[in-house]
Every structure is written in C-alpha cells, then in structure tokens.
Design goal:
Pfam families: Lactonase. This protein is mainly beta and 407 residues long. It contains no helices and 30 strands.
C-alpha cells in the first residue's frame, strides 16, 4: 500500500484539523449515500440514471419523475457528461457527483478519469454542471461521501497496470469538488492472469458508524480496511491493525454493503459470482457464509455485480452478468444475517450492472448495459418476489440508478 502526496498537501492534513474536529457518529440507517433508501410514505421520486456515452446512444445523466404507486415514469431533464457510470447524491439532495469513467479498455494509460459535480434541484429535476476534477487514477467506478459530508471518495479501478488501482479523496467545498488531497495505491495481484495482474479497487464503503472505510480490491482479492480520523490525529485514512480481510483467491471482490443494524456485511465477488456474508464489529469482518449465484452445473460466462438489501432488510438481491443476466434473490435470517436462496429472475437483456429498489420497496429497477434497456419489476414486499411483467424504458447503456425525494 502506498500513500501519495500531491504538491505541498500533507497526508495527515493537519491544517484541516480544527475544522474537522467534530466527527458525526451515524447509524446505518443514516448512511444514505450508498443505500437504496429506507421505507418512505411518499410514492413519488426523482430517478437519476447514469450511463456510458461511448456508443453515442446516451448523452450522460438522465432524470425521471417516478411514481411508485403506478410505476409511471416521466422524463424531466438530462445533463451531458462523459461516462457517468456511477452517481452519488448528497444528503441535502442539492448536489450530485458522477464519475467520468476514463480511459477504458482501449484508452491511453496516461489519461486520467474525472469526477464531475452538479447542482441539483429535486423539485424540477434539473442538473447544473459545477466543475470537474481529475480522479487521480484510471477508470473511476464508484463514489462514496464520508459520513460527515466533507469528503468524496473515488474507487479507481484502473484497467492499466500503471498506475494500477487506487482510491482518491476529494474535499467538498460548497458546490464544488476540490482536487484530491490523498490517493492510496494498493500493491498486489491474484491468481487469474489478465484479470488480476495488479490492483483493481472496485468500491469504497464506509462502515455504519462512520469510523472505518473498506476498499474492495478485485485484483488483490482483499477487502482493505482503514480508520477514518478527520481530526488528523492518526492521518485522514490510516490502515487498521488487521489491514485487510482476505477473500477466496481468484474470486475478485466487487461491492460491499451493510445491514441497517450494522451487524452484518454482504459482498459480491465478480469473478466467481458469489455472495459472501460477514459478521461486523468495530472495523472487523468475520466470514460466516458464502453462496454461489449460479445454478449447479451452469456453464458459461458469469460476473457478479451489484448488491442491495430491500428497505426493510428482509431480502437481498444481486446481479449476475455474463451469460446468466439475472437478478438473484435471497431471504435474510433476522437472527443471524444468514442468507437463503429464493430464486432467480432474468433481467431480459444483456449485462445488468447496477440496480436500485425504490424507497417504498415496491419496485426493483435494473439496467441492461448492452441492451439499452431498463426494466421496472414490481416487487412483492412480503415475499421479495419480482413480477414477470416488468415495465420497459429505453436508455442508451444504462448503468447506475439513484432515487431522490423531490420534496
């Protein structure tokens, strides 16, 4: 692991200590930025959709008004952006941040990705571009806002071995996102040649109490853990004593989520398409269960992707790409967090990446990146089952989805 300085900015960031002395202790229910949302009494939401723009079928970010009572969607606005494949919304709903996922598989390794900031009006759905900064890495694929709202973190996947995977930390100053003040590069590799020759940081997720950061490294088969101390007393982000949690060699960890109680964590692994459940306590993850996404004897390409819990926490869903192209559904045991496979639902297209469950819990929305389609599956909140007659919306290369209350 290497900590990089930029210019005269010091990694410990002691100059920020006075203004950052108060750290908010948040529960998992408050950790809204990466969650699908808690149950809501309102049935109308803004739905933000991030896309890939390289094919020319999409111009960037789209905003729809979504009625969870009827499933009706109305387009409100769009904003031009290059490959805004992952979005995050500020807690006050006034700001949207997007990655600019560059350079991609065939781009020059010297090109860096970007982070774009937008002003957002939830009532009208309008997005106004504010500024863009370098992601200080290649192929940014995930964003997280620190629990105190002061920093934005980017997971730089990096297809290229040089510079390799990293995560970068950006101060949030009013409407603008500032240049990075810290980047952390991981050293390491895995057994799968061509996919794990170097580090690939795929997500950065804060613990429910806001004290720790977990960086999922697909290339190194590790979940790196960092202590978050914004007062500068121990560095802004410093490795924990354990430093990382190992996962099965060749599995490729991708996305991590926590339950609302902050007692359990769930991980998707991309390369062997599995879901792993951990007990969580004070920065430590303890492996308890691993379940495959695929059916026994399945032959074909696989690719574990996104993972989310239902708003009530009773069900867990994950996407499996490759030749499977399905959403896998599990029941969550309330006493110990263990999972039980319930079933699989075709996404009716190719390459489902991210998905979202609306805050009422009645709809699951998934995008098929390579089929230019989004499907709205009505969801049974009692059984977790997805209806067989979803509504369809055509969008070029849809990837990510975020719900926001307009009022």
């Amino acid at each position: 692991m290497r900590l990089h300085q930029f210019g005269q900015r010091r990694i410990l960031l002691r100059g920020f200590a006075a203004s950052l002395a108060a750290v908010l202790s948040l529960t998992a229910a408050q950790a809204f930025a990466q969650s699908a949302g808690t149950a809501s009494n309102s049935s109308v939401f803004d739905l933000l959709v991030g896309t890939y723009t390289g094919s020319g079928k999409s111009e960037g970010i789209y905003v729809y008004r979504f009625d969870a009572g009827t499933g009706a969607t109305t387009r409100l606005a769009s904003a031009q952006a290059v490959n805004p494949s992952y979005l995050v919304v500020s807690k006050d709903r006034q700001h949207v941040y997007a990655v600019n996922e560059l350079p991609g598989d065939n781009g020059p390794a010297t090109q860096r990705g970007g982070i774009s900031a937008f002003r957002f009006d939830p009532q009208s759905g309008q997005l106004t571009f504010v500024n863009r900064v370098s992601s200080d890495g290649n192929d940014p694929a995930y964003l997280a806002i620190s629990p105190d709202g002061r920093y934005l973190l980017s997971a730089n996947y990096s297809v290229a071995s040089n510079p390799g995977g990293s995560f970068a930390v950006f101060p949030l100053d009013g409407e603008r996102v500032g240049p990075s003040v810290l980047t952390v590069h991981h050293d390491g590799s895995g057994p799968v040649k061509g996919r794990q020759d170097n580090s690939h940081v795929h997500s950065t997720v804060f613990s429910p109490d806001g004290r720790y950061l977990f960086a999922q490294d697909l290339g190194a088969d590790k979940l790196y853990s960092y202590r978050y101390t914004p007062d500068g007393s121990r560095g802004l982000f410093g490795p924990t004593e354990s430093r990382y949690t190992l996962v099965k060699p060749g599995s490729g960890p991708r996305h991590l989520i926590f339950d609302q109680a902050g007692k359990h964590a769930y991980l998707t692994t991309e390369m062997n398409a599995s879901v792993t459940m951990y007990d969580y306590d004070d920065g430590k993850l303890t492996l308890k269960q691993t379940l495959p996404m695929t059916t026994p004897g399945f032959k074909g390409k696989i690719g574990g992707g996104a993972i989310h819990l239902s708003p009530d926490g009773h069900f867990l869903y994950a996407t499996n790409r490759g030749d499977a192209n399905e959403i896998v559904r599990y029941a969550v045991n309330a006493s110990d967090g263990h999972l039980k496979l319930l079933g699989r639902t075709s996404t009716l297209g190719k390459t489902p990446r991210e998905f979202a469950i609306d805050p009422t819990g009645h709809w699951l929305i998934v995008g098929n990146q390579d089929s230019d389609s989004v499907y709205f599956f009505r969801r049974n909140v009692d059984t977790g089952e997805l209806a067989s007659d979803p509504k369809r919306l055509e969008i070029g290369s849809p990837v990510d989805f975020k719900f926001v209350s307009p009022s």
